[in-house]
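Exercise 7.
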Amino acid sequence: MNNFAVLDIAYAYLTGGVEVSITTNNPCHLTLYWTLNIPLRHKTTRTFRGITMPWGAYFCFTAWTALPQQEAGDTLTHTFDVTDWPHCETRWFCFAGTVTGLESPSISAIYMKHHRARHTYTLQASKDTFFRASHPNANYGNYTYMSVSRASAAPPYFYPSLLSFQLPSIPPEWLLLEATLKLHYITTLSYGLEHYACKVLFGGWWEMAATFNELAPGIPWSSGSFSNTDYVLVDPLAASAIIPPGVGKDMFWNLKPITEDARTLTPQHVNLCIIQPVQHRGVTWYLTREYPYFNYYPELFITLDQYP
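Solution. The predicted structure, written as tokens, is:
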């Protein structure tokens, strides 16, 4: 028999589209047919012994587009990447194909799928500050700028900056597409150098009390003072960005791995350290949320696909 039946169907979200995958009871080679037109059901009749009676129905499936499966030959698993499927658009589709090269009499049911909306959030920092190794007991939580520098391998010329973002309530099944950190610097002496945005291992630092020696009153950092034992460069992967020349520039970091990691934590906070790993006397001054104009605040942009 060259028949087939669909046993299971699943969806995965792509950038700008949807991956449709199905399994069948028999190996076959299928084509997905999709349309934007709602399939209409038409009743039929049959005359039996002079009496006209209802007799089944047929469906009007029009203006369709064909998309062959990705796999070669006859398979039990069938994958279709519908890459031109905009958000908030509903499509109807069905499957037909061949078995051992012969046209199959089987036609699947008609399926309906709505590609749900994409959500973008703009988050402003919930806290930000910086440290000076040369002043290990000073707190700068109320400053309108954060300093980043490393003029030597060890203190006192090491200035890291810390900031944190609180994630909104997001269903765990939603797919994170992008997460981008934006900082605005007023001036820099470190053109062409890289600054890294790393995950801070201790999210409970106090903005108005944290110092180079303590993350909160009476609580030291892991090695007694802030060091590379308090942040990670991998797992999740730190992001890097090169400082452009000029005055008053925006810088951007890809924070998708760090944001994905934050979604697994309780509470869901993206806690970051901005560091300059290369020794250089130049200092960069990033504006903080204490700056008078909110459009220069540290921001985290996250984009998600609503799923399923």
